[in-house]
Amino acid sequence: MTVSGLRISGPQGWPARDALRTQQVVILPSLRGLVSGEVRVWSIRAVKPYLSALRSRDGKLRVIPTLLERPQAKRGGGGSARATPVYIRRITLEDGVVHLFDATAAQPPLKVHREQLQASVRNVLIPVSQARANPTSAAL
User: Which of 26-35, 37-46, 55-64, 79-88 has the lowest mean pLDDT?
Assistant: First the structure.
């Protein structure tokens, strides 16, 4: 599956307009995942991705908060549905740009710019929280 022009806006108060955007994302599902009922992805390749991250005043690193963080109102609660973790064999970034905003150093946060990044991460497990689980989350 190929997705062109993916864009995830930063939440209100985020130091950049976008939390993530990419020219193209290529996702290859795992055949094992298709037959086992698990959510498994063989590879994700992002071409020319942009990522903004925030190191908060307390030192915590926040990345793509609209996808990876649970809403405050739902913490402590949980649904009765069992959350399904997502296994990703490999994530590759090609020719990426990262803006790291460091709120521990200055207010407004100091911006650190890196470009032409090449990265590869293997064997990623993303636990899906009960609060974020929904029927469309398994469509990956």
Answer: 79-88
Average pLDDT, the chain: 83
How, if at all, do strands 86-102 and 39-55 pair?
A: parallel
Is 23 domain-assigned?
Answer: yes
Task: Please check the confidence at residue 18 and state whether its pLDDT lies above 80.
Answer: yes
pLDDT of residue 72: 57
Instruction: Look at the chain and report how many structural domains it folds into.
Output: 1
Q: Rounded CA gap, 48 and 97, in Å? A: 7
Whether 21 is in a domain gets the answer: yes
| Residue entry with tokens 């990262």 | 98
Give me the domain span that covers residue 30.
Answer: 2-66+83-129
pLDDT at residue number 137: 34
Alpha helices in the chain (DSSP H): 31-36, 65-68
99 lies in a domain?
A: yes
Rounded to 5 degrees, what are φ and ψ at 32?
A: -60, -40
pLDDT value for 129? 58
Which sign does the torsion angle of CA 5, 11, 12, 13 carry?
A: negative
